[in-house]
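Question (not urgent): is this output format expected?
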Amino acid sequence: MTEIQGNILLTGATGFLGFRTLERLSKLDTVENIIACGRTLRPEAKIDSPKIHYQLGDLTNPDYVRSLFENHKIDYIIHCAALSSPWGTYQQFYQTNVLPQRNLIKRAEEHQIKRFVFISSPSVYSNFKDRLNVKESDPLPAKSVNQYAATKREAEILLEKSTLNWISLRPRALVGRGDTVIMPRVIRAVNEGRLKIIGNGENIADLTPVSNVVDAILLSLTAPSSALGKVYNISNGNPVRLWDAIQKTISLVGLTPPNKKVPASVAMTAASVMEFLARYFTRKEPVFTRYGVSVLAQSFTMDISLAREYLGYEPHQSTEEAIEEFVDWYQANHS
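Got this back:
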């Protein structure tokens, strides 16, 4: 792999993927400085390294973004920051997923950075149906499943229209040490007695070790020019039965996995009602969303041959290893 030389601006550096990316970058000899952005920095998420310069702030603020480029020489941008949630208004998602992209692109073009790597989402493919072996070239749904997916696609389009050397990655369902999203939510639902198997429990899905996504990011920074200007699916290319993985994780952390099943159609109807009530009456995020039901009940897998061909991407950690890594970390931090 060609070496990454110079200074890197990393957004979302205090989140799950951002932290793991920052951790890896800090160990590379040829990386000189990393400007690590985030809104807040928890003590346990802080990495002490002379290379790392934390610059906390709000990427929706153009003055803050301008200051990042005026105060530091930046060669590469890795944009991980996002609002990732199944529920919220378009304005909330626009503010967090589109406006920062616009601000970063503007300054990146002015300062002629070498490369912009954007972390997008495979939720842009979702259409409330089983989807198998999805390719980047497949037509996207006419209507996005939620505002998160809609604004992620908007952010992709902004980059596609820019003059930058860019790569967009669509990593699927990250798992591993430091996960604060997928498995912790599952464990919380078990503890609250509200997790049931939705559907027949046979659906398959891509779960991707976060370490493999970090590999893809680093490869994107040094990939040949032929790889630029493309969107890439990132997963393990080895789907698992989703509920087997969920139940294994629950068992490993010492809890009893659910065995009761709810038909997907019943769950989807209930979620539709909850969304209606939330949208027009309670104004609070519903317990279930249609997108959440779809993720748990339907099959979703992606073709990663493009990333293999152009980025030289090969998954090195298995999903099973990443689950065990998560369990070890979770038990050490939640005992």
